[in-house]
Write a structure and sequence with these properties.
single chain, 96 residues, alpha+beta, four-stranded mixed β-sheet, 4 helices, 4 strands, 44% helix, 23% strand
Length: 96
């Protein structure tokens, strides 16, 4: 995915799930040879992700995005997510 496309997808997520006074959280996760995943957590608790070629590209994209802050999977970030019952059932089926 190009840097422009990455920026566009992040901006679309911020527009849909951000608030003026609350930054969207972004957790960069390396996924081996496939590159990196940017997991976005909106102010409304929605989650989204964007794939990039590598961790460096992901970090640069997060730094360049307006209304986004770099985060980790800490208590605040996990507490900000809102996962619905349908998603929980889907994930439970994958575990069995």
């Amino acid at each position: 995915m190009s840097d422009q496309t990455t920026q566009k997808r992040i901006a679309e997520f911020v527009k849909a799930h951000g608030k003026p006074d609350t930054a969207v959280r972004a957790v960069v996760e390396p996924i081996g040879r496939a590159g990196a995943r940017i997991v976005l957590v909106g102010a409304d608790g929605a989650m989204g992700d964007v794939m990039t070629a590598d961790v460096e590209s992901a970090v640069k994209a997060v730094e360049a995005a307006a209304g986004v802050e770099q985060a980790e999977w800490d208590r605040e970030t996990t507490g900000a997510t809102k996962i619905g019952s349908a998603h929980r059932r889907k994930m439970a089926k994958m575990q069995s």
